[in-house]
């Protein structure tokens, strides 16, 4: 991975942002919720390196704490989606028949809707919050993992080592989780790296629309939305959360490219 320049850059950028997010309580110069009366929409300075928002809150501190929310939502949503999706794909691909048909039709139904619209509908039912955004991102991502896992299982279940396990009397559960699963994880790992950047972007989109993280909690998407009303007065307001969001997604995409090159080398 590190021998590939783009992957190395991606790892470096992502590690830097993850480190800043984890150390936000230490490195942030101010409380992200504290309001400095009289310093509303202040330009960048030594006291406020990124300036302040319309309520006098330090933008740098809010960007750093907002990174924690974006990364947490992305990580947990991808974890939930991958675990649930892989389990569904394993069961459907191994047993086939009616269960497989029902599972695949359900995933096809979910995939028929644009992800952002389906996520908006889910959050509308659950109520706007970071937890709702996380569950929405997870639900819209499950079909991808389910179909990916199922296709791998279909290719593996007829192989000799699986037949040998059956002949030795191994239970279906053991065959699925001890024999087939380890040999179907490579495409799942690749998909996880791809999904991380997409999850960050989707969470930011939901927050931008007011359906994700709710004020006064800091969120990159919500900050971008609020800054749109002050583009002429404070152009720096939306610049910094936008740059951090771009850098994080770019870093995650570079990592996903490196993982694909490692696990799917070109001939």
Poorly predicted ranges (pLDDT <50, ≥5 residues)?
Answer: none
Can you name the CATH architecture? Orthogonal Bundle
- β-strand amount: under 5%
Distance between the first and last residues' Cα: 18 Å
CATH top level is: Mainly Alpha
**Largest sheet, strands/sense/barrel:** none
> Share of helix among residues?
over 70%
Compute the number of strand runs.
Answer: 0
User: Any idea what the radius of gyration is?
Assistant: 22 Å
Mean pLDDT: 89
The overall number of domains is 1
CATH fourth-tier homologous superfamily:
MetI-like
CATH topology: MetI-like fold
Gross morphology: elongated
Which structural class matches the secondary elements?
A: mainly alpha
Individual helix count: 11
Q: Secondary-structure element order, as H and E?
A: HHHHHHHHHHH
